[in-house]
Structures are given as structure tokens and as C-alpha cells.
Write a structure and sequence with these properties.
Blueprint: H1 5-28, E1 36-40, H2 46-55, E2 60-65, H3 68-80, E3 86-90, E4 102-108, H4 117-126, E5 128-139, H5 152-166, H6 173-183, E6 186-194, E7 197-198, H7 205-220, H8 235-246, E8 250-251, E9 255-262
Parallel strand pairs: 1-2, 1-4, 2-3, 4-5
Antiparallel strand pairs: 5-9, 6-9, 7-8
Helix pairs in contact: 1-2, 1-7, 5-7, 7-8
């Protein structure tokens, strides 16, 4: 969905909304003091920074991403927060190789963009010590909780995501996580589906949804999945005005957070 400043802004907004869910998942998976963690596709460092807080000064986090501008932002954020236990490496997710094994490997919204998720999970296993844990958090656009009361504009926009990702093998990657872990040779997968629900005039969800549709538009529009012209300069405010006037809730997209251990 791009590597420009607007996309980094969208990812930062998304990360702020999802941070409590991701931190809870990392804690459930056992990410804790002293562990060595690899964060795949770290972007501007959101998951890496959460993990660095959990592993403490005796632990270590290495984030990898292909986007050099995002990595520079991540490094600056780590400096601003005084996180000395974290470093970042430029690499494609499929090409990383490290000499020392990790206690855990994390990734958020990585497999949905991966042509062969099982192959990637198997390569992750090569980076883990025995008993190490892989932690993944993925969207599943095959399921969507409607707003209440009904909200036609929001449903129209979410339909774009359902239609677009429905054409992709990985569109329902969240629900596939349990099976993928097993196919890749990991033991005892633990998976849960969840999503945030928000509303009100101050919610960041309106900009998040509007910018997500904007990012997807160049690929969805030629496929005929966007049924009418959308004014992206005003779409967030239109969503906000309609939600406030209707007193509706805004459910986020379904995510599945899962973890499993190396046999």
C-alpha cells in the first residue's frame, strides 16, 4: 500500500489504535524481560517499541524492514524514547538471516502481503531457538461487524476492502493463522479474533478509514470495486459528521492475533 509519507502517517495512526491489542498479544505470548526479539516488517517501529518495553534493558529487539525512510523514523523514535535495547536493519522480510537465534519473532500485518506465508513461517522457525515463539497479528477481511445503528457510508467503504481482499488468497489470512502455524511445523497455536470499536467526535477512526481507502484506491478502482467518485480530502470529515449525527459506533476490521512455539 505504498512507502510514502502519507502511508507512514496512516500506519502511525493505525498503530496508535491497535497498540493495546498488540501489547496484550505480546504479553499473552510470553514476551518478557531479557528476551531477544526479531520484529518482521517493522515499518516505523511500533511493534518493535512495544516489544522493547517488555524485554527491558536486559533484552534486545531487532526490527527489519525494506523501507529506509521508515527505518530512519523508527531509529529516531527509539532515540526519543531512550530505547537503547533496539536496533533496525534494512532487509526484505524473506531475505533476513542472523547468526544468533531469537527467543521470539513478531510480525503485524505481514503475512497478508506475503505470497507464500507457510514458507515465510518456516524460515522464521530457522531464526528461533528451540521452544521460541512466533507471534503474528493479521487482518481478516472476510468478516466484518456492521456499525450500529446502520451506517451506509461506512458499509460502502468496508465493502471495498472485502471485495478487494476477497480476490486474494491471503484476504482471510487471520482465520488461516491456526492452520498456517501447524503447516509450518509450530506447536500448540493460540489464536483469538478481536477488533476495536469506537465513535464520537474525537475518534481517530474516521481518518484511519478514509486514509486506508485512499491507499487502496489505485488498485481497487481499476478492478471496478469503487462504485462512485470519492472526495478523499473531505471523506474523513464526512464520516465524522455522519457518525456523530447518527450516534453510531465504528467497528474496526477483524484481526486475529496468534502465537505458537517451535517444536
Amino acid at each position: 500500500m505504498g512507502h510514502d509519507d502519507r502511508e507512514r502517517r496512516r500506519l502511525a495512526l493505525q498503530a496508535e489504535i491497535l497498540a493495546p491489542f498488540t501489547e496484550q498479544l505480546l504479553r499473552r505470548a510470553g514476551i518478557s524481560n531479557g528476551m531477544r526479539v526479531l520484529d518482521l516488517g517493522c515499518g516505523v517501529g511500533d511493534v518493535s517499541l512495544l516489544a522493547s518495553k517488555l524485554v527491558g534493558n536486559k533484552g534486545e529487539v531487532v526490527g527489519i524492514d525494506i523501507d529506509p525512510a521508515a527505518l530512519e523514523t523508527a531509529r529516531q523514535r527509539a532515540r526519543d524514547q531512550g530505547r537503547t535495547n533496539i536496533s533496525f536493519v534494512q532487509s526484505a522480510v524473506q531475505e533476513y538471516r542472523f547468526e544468533s537465534a531469537f527467543d521470539a519473532v513478531t510480525g503485524r500485518h505481514i503475512l497478508i502481503h506475503t505470497p507464500d506465508p507457510v514458507a515465510l513461517l518456516r524460515s522464521i522457525g530457522e531464526q528461533l531457538r528451540e521452544g521460541g515463539v512466533v507471534v503474528m497479528q493479521e487482518y481478516d477481511f472476510s468478516a466484518s461487524h456492521p456499525a450500529y445503528p446502520p451506517w451506509p457510508l461506512r458499509e460502502e467503504l468496508m465493502q471495498v476492502f472485502r471485495d478487494f481482499f476477497g480476490q486474494m488468497t491471503n484476504g482471510s489470512i487471520g482465520t488461516q493463522l491456526y492452520r498456517l502455524f501447524g503447516q509450518a511445523g509450530f506447536a500448540a497455536p493460540d489464536c483469538r479474533a478481536e477488533y476495536p470499536i469506537d465513535g464520537g467526535a474525537d475518534s481517530p477512526f474516521y481518518e484511519w478509514l478514509a486514509e486506508s481507502v485512499r491507499a487502496l484506491y489505485p488498485r481497487a478502482q481499476p478492478l471496478g470495486l469503487v462504485k462512485r467518485e470519492l472526495n478523499f480530502d473531505t471523506l474523513a470529515e464526512q464520516l465524522r459528521d455522519e457518525a456523530v449525527s447518527r450516534h453510531v459506533c465504528l467497528p474496526g476490521p477483524v484481526m486475529v492475533g496468534g502465537f505458537a512455539r517451535k517444536r
